[in-house]
Design a protein that fits this description.
By secondary structure, the chain is α+β, with helices and mostly antiparallel strands. Helix content is 27%, strand content 26%. The longest helix has 17 residues.
Length: 142
């Protein structure tokens, strides 16, 4: 089963001004390396600060693109990992090892599989081909 680990920073959590960014990069690098060596890491990326982002609001047609404000932001989405584990419990154990500081949160969500959808659907069939083109149809470690 695939799981997404979503790193969140609550709005009230401020990072200290003297934050040792090198230590954070090293801790995250070691965590990523352990995921790789265990053969469970499929993908992972960090995100640039929210100030560089845009909001696409679909309340109207065409959608409205703004650079903020973001409304009532309670948490910022800072990055993610996609891992593949045999069980949900194993995914939870990997999530608990993530080197996040106090106040930070990590959300664990199962990633749906193509096999869960109507196999007669045209786009479900196309997705199998797209995954093959992208090379994402191979099992972990292949």
């Amino acid at each position: 089963m695939k799981y997404m680990l979503i790193m969140r920073q609550p709005a009230e959590v401020e990072l200290p001004a003297d934050l040792d960014f090198t230590a954070i990069v090293n801790a995250m690098g070691a965590y990523n390396e352990s995921l790789m060596e265990a053969g469970v890491l499929l993908a992972g990326e960090g995100l640039a600060p929210a100030e560089e982002g845009l909001v696409i609001d679909f309340e109207q047609t065409p959608p409205l693109v703004t650079d903020g404000p973001y409304g009532e932001v309670k948490e910022l989405f800072n990055g993610f990992w996609i891992i593949q584990t045999a069980t949900r419990e194993e995914a939870v154990e990997w999530a608990k090892r993530c080197p996040l500081g106090p106040g930070m949160k990590l959300e664990l969500r199962r990633v749906t599989e193509t096999e869960e959808f109507d196999q007669e659907n045209e786009y479900v069939q196309k997705e199998y081909g797209w995954r093959e083109q992208l090379g994402t149809d191979k099992p972990v470690g292949a």
